[in-house]
Amino acid sequence: MGTDDVPLDDKAKRMRDLLSSFYSPDPSSTPNAPSKHGTLDAINTTSFDPDQYMNLLVQKSNLEALLKRHVEMAAEIKNLDTDLQMLVYENYNKFISATDSIKRMKSNIVGMEANMGQLLDKIMSVQSRSDGVNTSLFEKREHIEKLHRTRNLLRKVQFIYDLPARLGKCIKSEAYADAVKFYTGAMPIFKAYGDSSFQDCKRASEDAVAIIVKNLQGKLFSDSESIQARAEAAVLLKQLDFPASVREFAEAIRAYRIIFPDSGRQLITLAQDLVINHFETTEQYVKRRISSANLLGVLRTIWADVLLMDEVLHEAVLPDFSLEAAQGAVKKYVASTFTYLLQDISDVLLRVNVSPKEAAEEHPLQVALEASRKAVLQGSMDVLLDFCQFLDDDLGLLVKLRDFIIDWVQEGFQGFLSALDDRFLLLSGRKNSSSPDQGLTEGAHSEKVLAGLVLVLAQLSIFIEQTVIPRITEEIAASFSGGGARGIENGPAFVPGEICRIFRSAGEKLLHHYVNMRTQRVSALLRKRFSTPNWVKHKEPREVHMFVDLFLQELKAIGIEVKQILPQGLLRKHWRSDSNGSTTSSRSNPLRDDKMSRSNTQRARSQLLETHLAKLFKQKVEIFTKVEYTQESVVTTIVKLCLKSLQEFVRLQTFNRSGFQQIQLDIQFLRTPLKEIVEDEAVIDFLLDEVIVAASERCLDPTPLEPPILDRLIQAKLAKLKEQNPITP
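^ Vacuolar protein sorting-associated protein 51 homolog, sequence as received from the core. Prediction below:
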């Protein structure tokens, strides 16, 4: 049997099965798996069993069929061999072709790498040339853009200068819509520069617009004009923010009541809505910073309109109705005035931002204190003078509001001074802002609060208590006495005693806050000094440690600040009596009297014994006293706190003999400069001795330096300081 006798579909199926069996050796992936009992068709499956197939074939076929099947199978085997041979040849040809392609790609890539390098060089060259062109044309491009902006600006300027002529042409041709369009377009420039650069143009344009408004009003109230023309005139007048006059409105009411006698209720509602609209506009107006004279002008206009409408619509009781509406506008003006005053004072205080060099040369804290004093006192007096115009005016509306205005002013000062106290605490960093609109304190909290600002706030609080509040009280008693509209049961609106207590307490808090801020800064320096070295392995002292210089520099900066802000106090130098030792140290002088014959151990024991005995028999010294508003008191308190911190830091360490002697040297050097800046030398001696005692108690071998060595090291330090500062005596 030849291959041509096999149908094409069967041949394709057989080829597919053959390839599937070749590339998919997994029996589980072959579809149509045979069942347990074999069939004659199972010869093409992967689970083919020859013995089972032969037994089945013999049972079902005769001899002739067996011979026929033999011939068929021989032909199929030959065809399969041929197909496999062709498959191998085809795959081999494809493999050879792929190998040739890979060789050609390798040869092409070798040449391409050099081409890519050349391409990269050309791209870099193009980029450099492009950068050169951009650089060479940059100035010209900037100049062209500048000229373009200048050209646009000149066009706008030319438009402003041509505006009066344009408006005149529009008036002649009655092109009022174009005239309104031109004028409203120029309004932003007139608002910004109308009082300086374009003053003449603005005046001429306003004269032309006045003619336009007059003509539009004539169209609006002319019976001969069409409804459309009158409507257009009304729209243009509204664009110019020029409403119809109340006089014409009153005439319209009179005519309307004649035509419609029963329209009184609608007219009353309309008139009241007009009054409400006027005062709502006034409330928006007072949100800006205006003077009382400007507000009085607005109120006079509104009151005149109210009286005019009251003549034709008396049953609306518009004067009483407007009185209720006016209360909100005037009260908001009073409140906004105090808000602006608080803002002015805060702005002055926020300018306190100086460097130590400026503080030493220009006295900026003193300037800031004087400016803030002026802002508080003069600002309060200006506000009172501004409010007095409401009481001095004879406008009927204000006469009826007189008691309310007095109460509002007194309540306003009470609230303003309380808010000022909160603002002081906020600026000093003692209180966090809970209001979302406290953007003004960002300048104070963007970095750490300046200690100088806190000192200014403390002194300013005392100034407000002692000067500002009594002055405000006198002015209120003279010009704003009476009132009572808020009711007797609510108590007085302005309580100066309470405000004085608030600022007295605020001044004390701020002064203590300044002392704490400065003390914490110095304590950080002392903590670093005593926590850094290994005191058990400390070397012998050769000079006064540099932390002493840093300590004295900090105290000098504090002295510069307090001299600008605080007055000098009464000089009270407390010296120790002879029975308690000399003015230098009642603990160290007995040690100086010891003789060289004692051993180091005996001398150390003697020192501790004498120290404790001196402590028992020494006069009682009050270390911490109330901080006064004087230079000496503040500096003395800071020095006391720093020395107590120094004593605590010493108690946390363990010293060898050299470390103890270094502490002795540093403390002994500090005695003289500290006594020069404090008012209580006895306390300073006591605290310095306490540091020495604490060091000796924490020392493994508390043997002090010999007096000659101690004096020689101190004199060497003084000579070195004199060389560094030859001007200083």
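DSSP finds 24 helices and no strands in the chain.
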